[in-house]
Hints:
By secondary structure, the chain is α+β, with helices and mostly antiparallel strands. It has helices spanning 114-124, 143-157, 164-181, 198-210, 218-224, 229-240, 244-262, 267-273, 279-290, 294-301, and strands at 37-44, 47-51, 56-62, 68-74, 77-83, 88-91, 97-101, 105-113, 137-140. The protein is built from 10 helices and 9 strands.
Amino acid sequence: MATAGLFWVQIVQNPDISPSQRDRAFPSVQTTPPEKMRVTPLQNPPGEGHYHATDCHTLFISLAPRPVRYRQSQDGKTYKGLCRSGDMLITPANVPLSVGWQDEEDCLQIQLTEAFLCQIAQETLNRDSDRLLILPQFQVRDPEINNLATLLLTESSHNAGGSQLYLDSLANLLALNLLRHHSTTKPSLTLYEGGLPTYQLQTVFDYIEAHLEQNLKLETLAQLLDMSQFHFSRLFKQSVGLAPYQYLTQQRVERAKQLLKQTDQSIIDIALECGFNSHSHLSKRFRQLTGMTPKVYRISVR
Length: 302
């Protein structure tokens, strides 16, 4: 668990890692821009180490199929005992953590920058981030965060280009959950109803259509309407019936259908032109929405 600070130098400044741990490196998985969040699967043999991240809050979620014996110390407190799959350790920014584990460790590390949490607090909760301090906690059970973390890891592990909207949405929800349920105060969330007016929807539709081949970000779409990412996503879904990332995928598949029908371009070229990163990526999304592969669709409409 202690090795993770080595991998994300953009986020973890001056990590304090024991020398015995420096030789073991586990590749991190890029999920969102590094100024927001990084998810890293960790698998370690029995050992011990130290972790200190000065400008990000860190979640460690156990994935081990069997309980693992831990000694965890932070903020003047120590926990000794078993951690089951789904148990979460929360280490706020600039809080040193010492850890020892007696069994094979399998866990997921999630680092969220202070800047990202401040942005979510100000845009979504309308709160001064200085009053929202993340609490150091041992053995936390939070099914919603566990579910979001699993989705983040699964989506990013597939290396599916064009999924940035989806990853952004998951990251925002995870950060919001952390602020609402694991901070010194429990801020309420203001919800807006009624959807988006037609002219705002058309602005978003036009932008997406003009940039289908790009890896669009949720932040970019929200800025078009000068609103927070969370409220934009909620109001967009109320209006369209689809989340922004679902609508983007739908439009990319529709563009692919036109090109398959009207041109002789190769399927890989069509995939790239429509914002997919490979033939297989297009085929997966195409089959999900149409029930057939691009090749079969092309034959059926010729």
